[in-house]
């Protein structure tokens, strides 16, 4: 399937977050899996991306894209969700990315400050 400009912008935003939070070489799917494993919801991620990108971002659209990031995306996301459910509690430590773009505040999922 051909990629639209919005899909390319979304993948670029996820790639920036992956490298910022996880490190060099991390993929957008790595970021999604980490988000979900920490108890973050796709709805929350869609809202955060909407704010960062300055354009509409529904949970349904984001879900469609992230489940197509790799052949094993659905399985990895499901495994992360089950891991978060088994843990039963949010992560205790909250971090901040070196460049200051990502912070963890009062929830299980990172919040982006300012558009990149």
Give an account of the 3D structure.
The structure is a single chain. This protein has helices at residues 5-21, 28-37, 42-53, 59-66, 73-87; strands at residues 102-104, 110-112. With 116 residues, it is mainly α. The protein has a two-stranded antiparallel ribbon. Helix 1 (5-21) packs across helix 2 (28-37) and helix 2 runs parallel beside helix 5.
List the helices and strands and how they pair.
Elements: H1 5-21, H2 28-37, H3 42-53, H4 59-66, H5 73-87, E1 102-104, E2 110-112
Antiparallel strand pairs: 1-2
Helix pairs in contact: 1-2, 2-5
- The strand count comes to 2
What count of helical segments does DSSP give? 5
Indicate the proportion of strand residues.
Answer: 5-15%
Q: How many strands, which pairing sense, and closed or not: the largest β-sheet?
A: 2 strands, antiparallel
- Order of helical and strand elements: HHHHHEE
Q: Can you list the strand order of the major beta sheet?
A: 1-2
Mean pLDDT: 80
């Amino acid at each position: 399937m051909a990629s639209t400009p919005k899909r390319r912008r979304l993948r670029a935003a996820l790639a920036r977050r992956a490298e910022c939070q996880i490190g060099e070489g991390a993929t957008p799917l790595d970021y999604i899996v980490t988000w979900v494993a920490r108890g973050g919801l796709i709805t929350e991620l869609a809202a955060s991306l909407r704010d960062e990108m300055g354009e509409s971002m529904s949970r349904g659209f984001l879900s469609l894209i992230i489940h197509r990031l790799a052949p094993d995306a659905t399985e990895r996301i499901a495994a992360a969700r089950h891991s978060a459910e088994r843990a039963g509690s949010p992560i205790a430590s909250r971090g901040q990315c070196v460049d200051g773009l990502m912070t963890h505040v009062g929830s299980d999922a990172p919040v982006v400050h300012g558009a990149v």
